[in-house]
Amino acid sequence: MRFAAVPRIGEGLRLREPDGMWASYDVLDVWYQKAEFGDVWMPYLHVRMTPGEAAGQVPGEYDEGYGAYGAGYASIGGGH
């Protein structure tokens, strides 16, 4: 039996951007779907970049183009 630590709705996490820099994200939704193999349930997360943060930005700096609400949405999930 395997277990994984999955963040809860409202928690923050740091994800590495494609350019190798880290950014803060807020968890908006968590759900589970049965995998295509065996009796395994995969966690999926819907996240949004934390307001006031831009990818690869030094903490404390603010860039209107990236940090505003509505910018930087992403969905991530296991197995895809």
How would you briefly describe this protein structure?
The chain has 80 residues and is mostly beta strands. The chain has one helix spanning 64-67, and strands spanning 12-16, 22-34, 41-49, 73-77.
Strand order of the largest sheet: 1-2-3-4
User: The biggest beta sheet, please?
Assistant: 4 strands, antiparallel
Mean pLDDT: 74
Q: What percentage of amino acids are in beta strands? A: 35-45%
Cα(first) to Cα(last) distance is 22 Å
Q: What is the subunit organization of this protein?
A: single chain
Radius of gyration: 15 Å
Helical run tally:
1
> What is the H/E order?
EEEHE
Identify low-pLDDT runs.
60-71
Which structural category do the helix and sheet elements fall into? Answer: mainly beta
Got a strand count? Answer: 4
Mass-distribution shape: elongated
Q: Level of helix content?
A: under 10%
Keywords, separated by commas or semicolons:
4-stranded antiparallel β-sheet; 5% helix; mainly beta
How does this structure look, described?
5% of the residues lie in helices and 40% in strands. It has a 4-stranded antiparallel sheet, with no helix packed on it. It is mostly beta strands and 80 residues long. The radius of gyration is 15 Å and the shape is elongated. It contains 1 helix and 4 strands; from the N terminus they run E-E-E-H-E.
